[in-house]
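Obj.: predict assembly geometry.
Materials: sequence records (below).
Method: joint structure prediction, all chains together.
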Amino acid sequence: LNLGPGTPPVKTAPLLALTSDFGLDDPYVGILKAVISSLAPEVRLVDLTHGIPPQDVLAGRLALEAARPYFPPGTVHLAVVDPGVGSERRALVVDAGRDLWVAPDNGLLSFLPEAEIRQVRALENPAFFLQPVSRTFHGRDVFAPAAARLASGTPPEAFGPAVEGFRRLELPAAAVSAQGVRGEVLTFDRFGNAITSIRERDLPEGEWETLVGGRRVSWAATYACVAPGEPLWLVGSSGRVEVGVRLASARELLRIGRGDEVLLRRPSGEGS
Amino acid sequence: LNLGPGTPPVKTAPLLALTSDFGLDDPYVGILKAVISSLAPEVRLVDLTHGIPPQDVLAGRLALEAARPYFPPGTVHLAVVDPGVGSERRALVVDAGRDLWVAPDNGLLSFLPEAEIRQVRALENPAFFLQPVSRTFHGRDVFAPAAARLASGTPPEAFGPAVEGFRRLELPAAAVSAQGVRGEVLTFDRFGNAITSIRERDLPEGEWETLVGGRRVSWAATYACVAPGEPLWLVGSSGRVEVGVRLASARELLRIGRGDEVLLRRPSGEGS
Amino acid sequence: LNLGPGTPPVKTAPLLALTSDFGLDDPYVGILKAVISSLAPEVRLVDLTHGIPPQDVLAGRLALEAARPYFPPGTVHLAVVDPGVGSERRALVVDAGRDLWVAPDNGLLSFLPEAEIRQVRALENPAFFLQPVSRTFHGRDVFAPAAARLASGTPPEAFGPAVEGFRRLELPAAAVSAQGVRGEVLTFDRFGNAITSIRERDLPEGEWETLVGGRRVSWAATYACVAPGEPLWLVGSSGRVEVGVRLASARELLRIGRGDEVLLRRPSGEGS
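Observations (raw structure tokens):
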């Protein structure tokens, strides 16, 4: 990532990025921010998103993966998509070199490359919890206080014992063969564009036809290249194959859903 | 509330927390922030939520009550859920000791304990209004400028005459008797969990069975204790009895709505 | 706009206001903020709204127009509603005297008065882009970096060649005649109030009756003047005629939509 000329050295307050499935209608996110502002008033808060579908760890992981490279070095990420709150799942503090992470150990951080991990700590030191710890809102009582402390300089070691790593959730991978590439729809964005399991690096050379949920869809360089209402596929801004419809929702118009097949194959005889 | 070791003294800019029913799709919230940033650029803005259902004073009050303890002392709260805008309802500035409040006098602040109130002022001094004052957007023209000034140090006395107190909205209280506890559903959160009028302190000792909208629901310590799709009740993060369904919406699955009865009663003969 | 007594001189960090149709569910807005925080960590970010309906340039323009007067002088606005991303539409940097704008050249900035424009630059200098520039997310790769640099003091001249002005999108104007005023519904807000093309200055003296989608609606000074469930029209907070229903949605109750006629005409003989 090249930020261009004259990137200033970051001398300002540390950045704390928040990601969750709490939505913005309930007071939960505001309460997280209240806790952090109480403990670390100098920290700058930035929301990545709180609109992860409820308890959808996969969608949370994709959002974090897409956004990570754009945050400044030293960012502390608080990420709470936590269907297992109250169970035995661990809470983690992860030092990934360029950034620090506080999250439940449920696969949300699967995209962090093994080689970048400097240490993983189990967030177990009760001195850093809000007391009493509720059984249902660890975001408030466990994760937010730890993220605030991390951002204001407490070292990861303080939060609990070192652990061996964390749960990794494998994404459905694209199957690449001489016959083509077979992937699937992972999630949708607000515009109804489908984000797929096929990455730019999976794309083969040569001529291919593309089928999405059994329907042929043409490649275009960008949405503006096709007529309104026309479907297309392209490599989206996060480096994944996206299927969209210009000025409309591919989800609705193509009637596709999560898990639907996306297939690139050798064109059949007729055309070529 | 114990914030843990080494809580730093707040030496930073004052915190101004915003709560409203404006939603985030219209420019209203952004306009509030523009006004505040114009008048008090040093203030740090934090959203509690703007997703209070339109004109739902009860839901606004519950959100504020749940969040209040987590904001740092000295926080200025701007709270606008104002179905009476343009009528004779008062605008208020309230000094509640640990925090300051700017809100319409319609019950939104009912949760502030009488004993903590230091002074209540009618927000009537036109010197603090944006001129001309519109008839429909007092959030922008009356409340936001006052909150900005309060946060930047103008004392409550400046805003208008002392008044005797403010409108208090009684919540439907849980009825506690030897036969059991009878309460009701007050509101729902994004996950479809029902927040009820029964508080932790209302809960009787001993064995009880719980009926929600006529249906038996078991207690569990936390969501993770029951199987996906199972209903449960527990004491939620704000100290109220909550009724939920693991990884699903109680509102939808149990077909319950606001005002529906929640009953704890002595178990009937068969089981005990 | 009179901000009242003792308005402090703005000595704090520059304000950067964000407006888009990205919604808050996807990570796109968070990524914009990450980019800006990386390049200009001292900048204060304020969201106007990200809830502009997808690709609705008209709604974006109305939101920006309504909010502009309330932001402090010197505000940098980043506005991205960009159905033409990837096409030949220009990206612009506009110096409008009291504020600076970064936006696509598609009519979004039509409300900026010609007389206030000091210079318009085509945003073409690749030194300010994130490299590689994606084909689908110019918000991240082109607009956000430019807005960050502008806010941290890079002059507009640096971003590209001067251009002659920008695309202006004419709003449907109200037709004013001796017989009355004919306008239309432009958009709706969250409360279901209809914002129309009739401005306060278009309103004639004297007695008129008002028809909205063919139905008679009475004027009221403010929502609180009518009974719950009653329709009314008034001059809303942005200076436009608004049609609403007290404590309900005019959109739903009056079954009106964008483009529906709003008519003020001489009362028919019977009543006067």
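Conclusions so far: Chain A is about 15% helix and 25% strand.
To do: check interface contacts against the pulldown list.
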